[in-house]
Amino acid sequence: MVKWKPTFKRFYRQRWRNPLLVFLSTLFVIGYFSMGQITALGTFFTKVLTESDHNKTSPQIPSFTRHLMSDAPTNKTAQFPEDLFTLEERRHGAVLFHVIGLTYMFVALAIVCDEFFVPSLDVITEKAAISEDVAGATFMAAGGSAPELFTSIIGVFISYDDVGIGTIVGSAVFNILFVISMCAIFSKTVLELTWWPLFRDVTFYSIILILLMTFFQDSVIYWWEALVLLCCYFCYVTFMKFNEHCEKFIKKMLNRNKVTRVGSSDKLMPHNKQYKFNNMLRT
User: Fold this and answer.
1) Which of 67, 146, 274, 278 is most buried, by CB atoms within 10 Å?
2) How far apart are CA 120 and CA 129, in angstroms?
């Protein structure tokens, strides 16, 4: 009896965690944000005192200059929050805190993905007994697209910016062109690719792009248009559930009229039957 082995079987080495390193990292994060709150509070009080002194010394004179309608103030919030340090402080070395915080976030993201996210996907794949390409197109794709999802949510509901569309389309182009090419370049073995996964994903992707361009003709997305796109994704997941059956059916339909060229009669029958057939002809 052949025992089924998980397709995403990997071996992970346990990372050595120093409690002192964890404590210092936590202390750094708390101190970073605490110092930012103190700096922001001091800047606020300084601005209030300066404005009050300016209002006492100089009266306000109304301005009647011309301006464009596009320059009118809007209710949009800033895309990024104000910096915790002034320009002078950053020039004198405060930018080092930004570099340390950025490095800390990258290392934390790598640890979470390497030791928690990918093993969880392995367990889900093993329990569901699904193939490697199906797991990559559903679970891995959902996990890899989570940053784009939250970036779009922040861009739409918090910063009121159009960064969401560029993030979605740009990440798709990046995954198709850069990720596939880099995997092929740095692969130690020859990658064996089949036409079916590429044909399947490109077909669904083309249909979704056509729908997206159609919905963007009036520069407005209605609720039913968003619901149609969401239903298309569930249709894709449902199709992936029956991926093997669909693959066999389509390959069977394509190979139905396939003609195989035979060079000699040796390929028509096995060797023992050919030997008996030759003896019968001799007698």
Assistant:
1) 274
2) 14
